[in-house]
Write a structure and sequence with these properties.
Layout: H1 29-34, H2 55-60, H3 66-70, H4 73-87, E1 92-93, H5 100-104, E2 109-112, E3 116-119, H6 126-130, H7 141-154, E4 159-164, H8 166-175, H9 183-191, H10 193-217, E5 221-225, H11 234-250, E6 259-262, H12 270-275, E7 280-282, H13 289-296, E8 301-306, H14 315-329, E9 335-339, H15 349-363
Parallel strand pairs: 1-4, 4-5, 5-6, 6-7, 7-8, 8-9
Antiparallel strand pairs: 2-3
The chain binds coproporphyrinogen III.
Coproporphyrinogen III (CP3) is lined by residues 47-52, 61, 66, 93, 95, 97-98, 111, 113-117, 162, 168, 225, 227, 342.
């Protein structure tokens, strides 16, 4: 790939905002919707749009391990751009993973194909937490470089940066890998709240620093993934999790980029997740967007919420669902079209391309 570095190549200790970036995309349909400003059409992107559904991704990743691929700026840039070129989505999302900053902080882990993140020594005590070091730009230089390359390439298409929220990260660190019940995580949370808050506090620091690096390098928005927060009741979410996610989101309040806050199975948490400090709340397919809007309130936009499994249905069914979601999204003060969770690897990419065209066509409107 040839890349121009109009975003400015990274220098040692350089955390100044890259030229362009957020300012160049301020009027894009995506940023406008996040800011609850009308735009020429409803913007659309897909969580996990860069990934195994694309043959060009499978090819370029063939001999490179997942974590290694996240550490090669040129490769990150190429993978991030693939779905933008192919589908014409309204935003790119940085190719990385939620465990990248945790690995940079010193945790011994790997991403195992078909399984997900696996941690060598799961967190059990205070000493394990102390081993999670605070990070600086030096620890994730490859992310800073990748974002600067991408900002130069993307022009007026926004780049979304992201990180995992403290609860979802803590779940991987305490369980040692993916978990259906989060039993060990909850055992620590209920059984030793002091240790739990120390762990989440440390993860919040790492997450905030990681997002700050991405913003300084030029991303136009950030998404905080609390994918597994739906495992909690609202009361427990508010008590054990919200303060830490709120610390991250408040720490970005002065950065001038929209903050998206997303989780799965969070129908009962939508109000609390909005109150954690988001500009946009991600909604999964279980809650219609007009209902979600009542829970979230008029001061935040929504993102979602096509069931990723619907992409396997015949096209007329997909089309009807896309139209329904756009209709329900009109109740919100701003709507970013997305799936309710990530693209599944078996998805036919041509269906995604058709969804983008349909969203743009159906939602087209004149703007002053
Ligand atoms: O396109 C994008 O959305 C950007 C890339 C992205 C990845 N991971 C790449 C990836 C993003 C935003 C993530 C976030 C992430 N990672 C989350 C939060 C989002 C969500 O899905 O809820 C979570 C929980 C993880 C942890 C993780 N990493 C899982 C569950 C897996 C899948 C395991 C598997 O193989 O099915 C990963 C690995 C991973 N991260 C892949 C990709 C493209 C697949 C690995 C591969 O292609 O070899």
């Amino acid at each position: 790939m040839t890349t121009t570095t109009t975003g400015g190549a990274a220098r040692d200790g350089d955390t100044r905002p890259s030229a362009g970036g957020a300012s160049r995309t301020a009027d894009s349909p995506f940023v406008r919707a996040c800011r609850r400003r009308p735009g020429p059409h409803t913007p659309v992107w897909f969580m996990r749009q860069a990934g195994r559904s694309l043959p060009e991704y499978r090819e370029i990743r063939a001999n490179v391990a997942m974590l290694e691929s996240c550490r090669r700026p040129e490769l990150v840039a190429e993978i991030t751009l693939q779905p933008v070129r192919r589908h014409g989505v309204d935003a790119a999302i940085l190719f990385s993973d939620i465990v990248v900053p945790v690995a940079a902080a010193g945790v011994d882990l790997d991403i195992v194909p078909g399984t997900g993140p696996v941690v060598a020594e799961p967190v059990r005590d205070r000493a394990d937490i102390d081993r999670i070091r605070p990070i600086t730009v030096e620890d994730v230089r490859y992310v800073d470089e990748a974002v600067r390359l991408l900002v130069g390439e993307l022009g007026d298409t926004p780049l979304i940066g992201f990180a995992g929220a403290p609860f979802t990260l803590a779940s991987y660190l305490v369980e040692g890998g993916p978990s259906r019940t989060h039993a060990r995580t909850k055992a620590l949370m209920y059984g030793d709240p002091d240790l739990w808050h120390a762990l989440c506090g440390r993860l919040a620091e790492v997450t905030l620093a990681f997002l700050r690096v991405q913003i300084a390098a030029g991303v136009s928005a950030v998404q905080l993934f609390d994918s597994w927060a739906g495992a909690l009741s609202e009361a427990d979410y508010r008590r054990y999790v919200q303060p830490h996610s709120a610390m991250v989101l408040a720490g970005l309040a002065d950065a001038g980029v929209p903050r998206i806050h997303f989780g799965v199975g969070t129908a009962e948490l939508l109000t609390a997740m909005g109150e954690a400090g988001a500009d946009v709340v991600g909604v999964d397919w279980r809650t219609p967007l007009d209902v979600a809007t009542k829970r979230i309130g008029p001061d935040r936009a929504v993102q979602g919420n096509l069931d990723p499994c619907l992409l396997f249905a015949p096209w007329p069914v997909v089309e009807a669902e896309v139209r329904r979601i756009l209709d329900e999204g009109r109740a919100a003060p701003g709507h970013v079209f997305n799936l309710g969770h990530g693209v599944l690897p078996e998805t036919d990419p041509d269906v995604l391309t058709r969804v983008v065209a349909l969203v743009h066509e159906v939602s087209a409107r004149p703007v002053d």
